What we know:
The chain is α+β, with helices and mostly antiparallel strands. It has helices spanning 134-150, 172-187, 193-209, 240-256, 262-276, 311-319, 327-334, 383-400, 438-443, 449-462, 464-467, 490-504, 507-513, 516-524; strands at 20-25, 28-29, 45-50, 63-65, 71-76, 81-86, 95-100, 115-120, 169-171, 220-222, 238-239, 291-295, 299-303, 345-346, 349-350, 417-420, 423-426, 468-469, 472-473, 477-478, 483-484. The protein has a 5-stranded antiparallel β-sheet, with no helix packed on it. It has a 3-stranded antiparallel β-sheet with strand order 4-7-8, with no helix packed on it. Strands 11-12-13 form a 3-stranded antiparallel β-sheet. Strand 18 and strand 19 form a beta hairpin. The mean pLDDT is 97.
Amino acid sequence: GSSFPGVEYSFTTVKASLIIESILLNGSCFKTPAVPTGVRYDAITIDVRFSAPINTANAASYFNLSGGVSFDLSFIESNTRVILTSLQKLEPYKKYSFVISNSLTSADGSPFAGFSNSFYTGLDSTFKFPEVSNDELLNLVQRQTFRYFYDFAHPSCGLARERNTSGDVVTIGGSGFGVMALIVGMERGFITRQEGINRLSKILGYLETCDRFHGAWPHWLNGATGKIVPFSPTDDGGDLVETSFMIQGLYTMRQYLDSTNTEEKTLIQRINTLASQVEYDWFTNGQNVLFWLWSPNNGYILRIEGYNETLITYVLAASSKTHPVSAQVYHQGYARNGAIKNGNSYYGYVLPLGQPYGGPLFFTHYSFLGLDPRNLSDQYASYWQQNVNQSLINWAYCTANPKKYVGYGSDCWGLTASDNPWGYNAHSPTNDLGVITPSAAISSIPYTPEQSMNAIRHFYYLLGDKLWGEYGFYDAFDVTEGWWANSYIAIDQGPIVCMIENYRTQLLWNLFMSCPEIQAGLTKLGFSF
């Protein structure tokens, strides 16, 4: 046969890579993708077992724990195992990163791919403030939050600033909530009745002279000049929803005033005049629906359709003595001929109306600062069942925490519109970004008294060093992102004062529901109450 000339091959052996066989953080697995939470912050130990002895020269510089935490390294078991022990307390409720550099090698020079993972330290369970009774705590939360609307009001006009950094920009809806908070302030003795009356008179003077469009105020105004501040390029006219939040507040205040007192009787008349000038009928554009916005430049924008925070707008429109709308506008426009119905169960709670899982919790607050939902029902729903169950669904969702955000739990819950690390968003179970907004759980206290009180205690006693400030609880926080707001927003602060009061005494509910116009309007729309 044929001869074989032979062939020559050359090859180089490659050292096996150095790998981590196990890594434990305080005795628990610390391998990715697991990100441990609730880690003890007083002392941590990281135990790394390698596949081969490591080169200990300069090894200390290859292990790094974020936050400037100093630690001790020990090498055991023939340098195959490294134990890192912190030499100081870590901060509670904080994210830390642990990195082993890929510059590390084995004793015989084998390469290492590197390692990194993060963990979150646990909550400091010591109380940040002295414990008081729940009743005293509710007093404190109301009083401190009330100051946003009284002490921090715009000095020229008395209205509430949009947020604590807004300068001259005041908000109509948030100021409507503020008018209701003024009642609470007088009733609870945070201010005298005369101080409240003086502030109301100043507010009315501004509302009578500032920009209006067919009786409707804009969303934002300049508190000094009374001129509109456009909310967006097309939102440069009257905002009927913001206006309805203001009228809700003014009607509630009117019922609180004493018609036998000359000064207060004049204020009642001024409120009636302002309320009579809102042209709800104009905002239909001749259709069986209300429009959110109208401006001379952009005409009618955005149909107001349920289910959301705008029920009060339709109730007030039906209640108007001067510019009413028909019941059909409610049934076709807001209720969409029954399309607002839901009827599904979430976490075992039936939701009569609205989007899956209920949406942001402000749906249960804004219209119901005045509207008493306890016995309110129509052909579409029981509004007590709606609000209780939307709140319970929100609580159950945060307790289940399907997205595994840090900090969520049965005492730390509440998704609604607020600031967040990236700006602002309407948070809800279907739009969950890891952001808890204290206003959500606190303002739901009439619906979920136990769960809301637990949340208040958690926010105040356990998180109060980060969350409690000059005007009550800051707007929101996101432990996963290490973000804590330093902002206050009128439409989040207002419901806190008002809904705690409705839980305690039903004061605002009783006042608003005593309005003859509201009773007539609800009856006209087919509500029982």
